[in-house]
Amino acid sequence: MKIHIPDDAPPVLRSSAVWPELAGRAELDYHDTLPTSEDALIERIRDAEFVVNIRSSVKFTERVFDACPCLRILSVWGTGTDHIDLPSAARHNVVVTNTPGVSAISIAEHTLALLLAVARRIPQLDAATRAGRWPRGQSAQLYGKTCGIIGLGAIGRQFARLATGFGMRVIAWTMHPKPGDPIVDLDELYATSDVISVHLRLSPDTVGFIGEREFAIMKPTAILVNTARGAIIDETALLDALTTGRIAGAGLDVFATEPLPPAHPLTTLSNVVLTPHCAGVTPDALEAGLRMAVENIWRFLEGRPEHVV
């Protein structure tokens, strides 16, 4: 059998512990560069039956599925499938799988790290101390504050546990609540939360989910953290809220355009902490996710597909 890997750039699969097993069981059509266009992607997988998709920057559109009639399974490393036309995949009888939950702990920890960095002003205090200054009394305490979590999937629930452990009061809004969840109305969450953490999936329903109206409801002391997807927040409204003091600060791991362009307005703000969409990329989460993406191929071949989107 042959497995196509059209987009391992920058490479993570080739150096992973699962690579020897993968190479030992299948012929590999492997690329460690991103396709430069839709046509380039089609050229790489035109005859493919089995594709392992590493990067979400590659778009699997109706045209791609039309041009790849042999495709049977698209195994995605990661949870997000907003780069895949899922209805088209279904029409073409292509099974799409992902790797849910493997990065939940890593992303939740990173969310907490961003929150602490903003609330305690760690980057600013570090820079000042290195420069010989001695500023104090500029940090915010989290204990006793209200943490509003938007989206209670695997990551949101893990972060809720961490926030509770810090002594925060946790409230939430989610599209699919479970009995016992601390659910409140969205406007109440925006109005009463000292911290708002976003853990939604990107979909047509969540693009621009938080915009000018929502920022107007928030406390001026609120901190917003986003480790989900950049497009969930209206970036223009976010910039306005941060520059006018409508909210106190933000911790961002995701952006509307990635990589973040040089001299982007967000990079000039002192009340923002930025990281390069790396929340789920720890060695532990990386290996677990890549192994699951490969094992999703094996389970499909055995006739018992798992993690089907």
Structure notes:
This protein has 309 residues and is an alpha/beta fold. It has two domains: 2-102 and 283-301, Rossmann fold, CATH 3.40.50.720; 104-274, Rossmann fold (3-Layer(aba) Sandwich), CATH 3.40.50. The protein has helices at 19-25, 38-45, 62-67, 86-91, 104-119, 122-130, 154-165, 186-192, 212-217, 235-244, 283-301, and strands at 2-5, 27-30, 50-53, 73-76, 95-97, 146-150, 169-173, 195-198, 223-226, 249-252, 272-274. The strands form two sheets. It has a six-stranded parallel β-sheet with strand order 7-6-8-9-10-11, with helices on both faces. The protein has a five-stranded parallel β-sheet with strand order 2-1-3-4-5. Helix 1 (19-25) links the parallel strand 1 (2-5) and strand 2 (27-30). Helix 5 (104-119) crosses helix 7 (154-165). The longest helix has 19 residues, at 283-301. The model has no long low-confidence stretch (mean pLDDT 96).
Order of helices and strands: EHEHEHEHEHHEHEHEHEHEEH
Count of helices?
Answer: 11
Order of strands in the sheet with the most strands?
A: 7-6-8-9-10-11
Q: Determine the N-to-C terminus distance.
A: 24 Å
Proportion in helices: 25-40%
**Rg, Å, rounded:** 21 Å
CATH fold call of the largest domain: Rossmann fold
Strand content: 5-15%
Largest sheet: 6 strands, parallel
- Structural classification: alpha/beta
Architecture (CATH level 2) name of the largest domain: 3-Layer(aba) Sandwich
